[in-house]
Design goal:
By secondary structure, this protein is an alpha/beta fold. It is built from 17 helices and eleven strands. A five-stranded parallel beta sheet has the order 1-5-4-2-3. Strands 7-6-10-11 form a four-stranded parallel beta sheet, sandwiched between helices. It has a two-stranded antiparallel sheet with strand order 8-9.
């Protein structure tokens, strides 16, 4: 059996199993969807081999790599055999489709386990994702949900999705809320590799829909960027403005993020300090004092009125600038009205 396979051939297979031989940190940065990480080297081992390669040359690096891997091979083969027994085509890849994946495929062949080496490795898959996003065709019209911070845009997206509306939650894919407090309580943001891969999957899933609903975002969400084709479609798309009172928005933010406020005080203080240039030292200090005194509602109200509302401008925007305006005091009713608008 041929031991190599192109990416185009691999993506056409019915339910293949991709085995990623790269180190855990490489795998976390980006991988082929559904891939299983069975690393040939752990992160520290990979660093050691790389250092020896740079200092002593490739022969010494290969020797070190062999000594590190030799005791692991039985367990690696055992893990891959388990996937092969499930009658799935085994495809092995590393970064460039080089030494790591080739060595493992050769060992698997000796052990009677058919496997294919992915030509070009993950690097080729990454290029495929970027090219597909750049040249994505047949993108449905994009409907953009706009509104002030706290109005409930993310909750509206969830309600719409639950009712069968084609929705992409860009902030969820980025694991970032798209604001100065956007990463607080969420852990690590999505890497560019993982965001792009997930977004491409969503665009392909919704390609045949009559429209796609997204939340209004800038080109950048945290540390990832929207592809040009989607950002331009958002600029040209219909805009829905959701409105709610300041007190409603304050209550929603507190309900949604109260645990985050209490469990991430140091990060919140750091985020408030980042606003000093825009709010001024006196107002920033007042916010910090209110937060220290557990006056959460006052802090949230001040952030909305003094920072977010002037920044985004929806509170003073002319509703005539939008294709549709919905009262979001009751989110269930707002979702129903948006669906009525979209279906008409």
């Amino acid at each position: 059996m041929q031991t190599i396979i192109s990416l185009e051939e691999a993506l056409k297979l019915d339910n293949p199993i991709f085995i990623d031989m790269r180190s855990p940190v490489e795998f976390a940065d980006g991988r082929i969807p559904g891939a299983v990480n069975i690393p040939l080297f752990e992160d520290e081992e990979r660093s050691q081999v790389g250092l020896v390669y740079r200092v002593d040359g490739p022969d010494e690096a290969k020797q070190l790599g062999l000594s590190l891997v030799s005791t692991k091979l039985p367990d690696i083969v055992k893990q891959i055999r388990g996937h092969y027994k499930n009658k799935r085509t085994v495809i092995v890849y590393c970064w460039r489709g080089g030494m790591r994946s080739k060595a493992v495929v050769n060992v698997l062949d000796l052990m009677g386990i058919p496997a294919r080496q992915l030509v070009g490795g993950y690097k080729n898959y990454r290029r495929h994702v970027l090219d597909a996003l750049e040249n994505f065709s047949s993108l449905p019209p994009v409907v953009v949900l706009c509104g002030s911070t706290g109005v409930g845009k993310t909750m509206l997206l969830d309600l719409l999705a639950c009712r069968g509306v084609p929705v992409i939650d860009l902030e969820k894919l980025a694991n970032h809320r798209g604001s100065v407090f956007g990463q607080v309580g969420l852990g690590r943001p999505a890497t560019a590799h993982n965001f792009d891969t997930a977004l491409l999957g969503e665009l392909e899933r919704l390609r045949s829909q009559p429209y796609i609903v997204v939340e209004c975002e800038s080109k950048r969400i945290g540390n990832v960027y929207l592809p040009k084709v989607l950002h331009e479609a958002m600029d040209k798309g219909r805009k829905i403005l959701a409105k709610a009172s300041v007190e409603t928005r304050v209550s929603r933010l507190i309900d949604e993020y109260l645990d985050i406020y209490r469990d991430n005080q140091e990060a919140i203080v750091a985020s408030i300090n980042m606003l000093k240039k825009r709010l001024g030292a006196a107002k920033t200090q007042k916010l910090l004092a209110a937060f220290a005194a557990d006056q959460v509602r006052e802090v949230v109200r001040s952030l909305l009125v003094d920072y977010y509302d002037p920044l985004y401008g929806y509170e003073t925007a002319d509703p005539a600038e939008f294709d549709y305006t919905v009262d979001a005091e009751n989110l269930e009713e707002a979702a129903s009205q948006i669906i009525d608008y979209l279906t008409k």
